[in-house]
Amino acid sequence: xxxxxxxxxxxxxxxxxxxxxxxxxxxxxxxxxxxxxxxxxxxxxxxxxxxxxxxxxxxxxxxxxxxxxxxxxxxxxxxxxxxxxxxxxxxxxxxxxxxxxxxxxxxxxxxxxxxxxxxxxxx
Length: 123
Fold this sequence. Notes:
This protein is mainly beta.
C-alpha cells in the first residue's frame, strides 16, 4: 500500500483545514486507517483511527470534538477534517494503514505510512 497525504498548510488559530490521504496499490477498504502527527522535537502521536467500513472511529483526547476522520472507499481516500485549530496542533500529519482488524491508537500496529503533510497553526 502506498499512501500520499496532502492538504496541509498554514492556518490561523480557530480556523479549519482538511487533510487527505490517497491510497494506491491496495484498496483502502481492506485496511483500518489512522492519522498520527509529530511536532518538532516530540514523538509521533495518535490522532484518529477509522474502521474499514467507516462505522467505528477512535480519537485522541486532544482531537475529540474538533477533528473528524472519514473515508471514501470508492475514492480510496481517507480524510481528517480539523476545526478550531490551535497552535499546539502544529505538526506533520501522517496517515497510516494497518491490517489489524479494529481501530487502534497503537502506532506499532500500523504497517504502512505516508510521507506526511505539514500543518502550521499561527496564533
